[in-house]
Amino acid sequence: MPVLGGTVPVERVKSPVTLQPHFNLSCALSGANMPAGRSLRRSASSRFLKPLLVLSLGTALWLGATGAMAQPIRVIPVDAPQAKLVVAAPSAGAPQTVTLDGKTIGVAPGLRVFSTDNALLNTAAIAGQKLPVRYKLDLYGQLLTAWVLSEQEQKALKAKS
After folding, report:
1. Residuewise pLDDT in 10s, the chain (161 residues)
2. What's the domain of life for this entry (predicted)?
3. Taking the domains of the chain in order of start, what are their residue ranges?
4. What top-level class would CATH report for the domain 82-160?
5. What is the rounded distance in angstroms from the CA atom of residue 156 to the CA atom of residue 34?
């Protein structure tokens, strides 16, 4: 039906969402506008925190179990001779040298000295110490790799020979 110069009546539909003039974070976190029995804090906790805690706990247990069972494996070549190593104190003017059973030899670029737990040792930190080692030389007769021996490894080598 045509309406001349007037307004058409509009039927108002109530929206299920009510708009508030400002946003109150504390009300949102407490679940004031949430459906009955649900709060934002509880749903965030159950949805994100619990699986994250379970995953991190499981990972920690797995890493702890494998770390406790697995000891570091040291692979020392069978043909590596045994000696007492003394690293000379580094100096600016001379190349780095070491002494193996009283014989002074040079140090290869990229020298690696492994501790008893297979960690790399800094040559400056062990300078002057007399350490029982097994070692490998490079093609030029310079010390390339050395493994510091534990007491158990020393006893096992004495028992073999």
Report:
1. 555 555 656 566 555 555 555 555 555 555 555 555 555 555 555 667 777 777 787 777 777 655 555 566 788 999 999 999 999 998 888 899 999 999 999 999 999 999 999 999 999 999 999 999 999 999 999 999 999 999 999 999 899 87
2. Bacteria
3. 25-69, 82-160
4. mainly beta
5. 71
